[in-house]
Design goal:
The chain folds into two domains: 87 residues, no CATH class; 145 residues, START domain (Alpha-D-Glucose-1,6-Bisphosphate, Chain A, domain 4, 2-Layer Sandwich), CATH 3.30.530. A seven-stranded antiparallel sheet has the order 1-7-6-5-4-3-2. The radius of gyration is 21 Å and the shape is globular. By secondary structure, it is of the alpha+beta class. The longest helix is centred in the last third of the chain and has 30 residues.
């Protein structure tokens, strides 16, 4: 929490002298690779300060999600200020979650495929709206929440009963282009349910930000919650 202490323990003049002013770094367009890297660093510093100010003003019980984001930005500050780290950072996100469920394989598959059921059994899902609907393919608007932060996106869903897979292709919002695959494999311990997310970042220079915020903070958390609550629902049915 050193960033918060620095933001509020000093006068505006001291903050300005240290480069901690609340200015908008997006106002200056980037130009060339060096400018792009510099802009990523500026954006990272700017957003970290915005989070610090918001965190300071929030009631204690609402601070946890912002605290997690602030920790992400600390990592980003180190990555964006280190040339070698930036070059090693991938331009593609690959995120996996898994859990073992003790329920019939087909029952698990049908529950995962039935999006209409999700808001009823998954407390972090706010809604599912069908835009197009058929036996094997749907277009849906999906809304969920991550620690009080609402998120929404539009996806194409493919229900592949021949291969026992449920696949998604995100069509809109900040995860546009992301591919998601659900698989269901019998193991001696039970049915291993896996969710894999793959996303090619459209702006490689912003990959460190996207991977930490989109991948770790939102997607990984929401997928874990989905698997955990789906397991509870299916195993409670016997």
């Amino acid at each position: 929490m050193a960033d918060i202490d620095a933001a509020f323990a000093h006068s505006p003049q001291t903050l300005a002298s240290r480069g901690l002013v609340r200015t908008n770094p997006l106002a200056v367009p980037p130009c060339g690779p060096q400018k792009v890297r510099s802009k990523v660093t500026d954006i990272t510093r700017f957003v970290r300060l915005q989070l610090a100010f918001a965190l300071f003003a929030m009631p204690p019980h609402r601070r946890k999600p912002l605290s997690s984001l602030l920790r992400c930005w600390r990592v980003l500050a180190r990555v964006t200020s280190n040339t070698d780290a930036r070059e090693r950072f991938p331009s593609q996100m690959h995120n996996g979650n898994s859990i073992v469920m003790h329920a019939p394989r087909m029952a698990i598959f049908e529950t995962a495929a039935n999006l209409e059921l999700w808001p009823k059994i998954l407390p972090h899902y706010r809604y599912i709206h069908y835009l197009e609907r058929s036996a094997g393919r749907n277009i849906v608007m999906m809304g969920a929440v991550r620690s009080g932060i609402p998120i929404a996106w539009t996806s194409e869903q493919i229900i592949d009963r021949a291969n026992l897979e449920v696949r998604f292709h995100h069509l809109k919002a900040f995860t546009k282009g992301m591919r998601v695959v659900w698989t269901f494999n019998e193991t001696p311990a039970g049915v291993l349910v896996e969710i894999v997310h793959d996303l090619q970042f459209r702006l490689p220079a912003l990959a460190p930000i996207a991977d930490q915020v989109i991948g770790n903070f939102f997607i990984h958390h929401v997928a874990n919650e989905t698997l955990r609550h789906m397991k509870t629902h299916l195993e409670a049915r016997g």
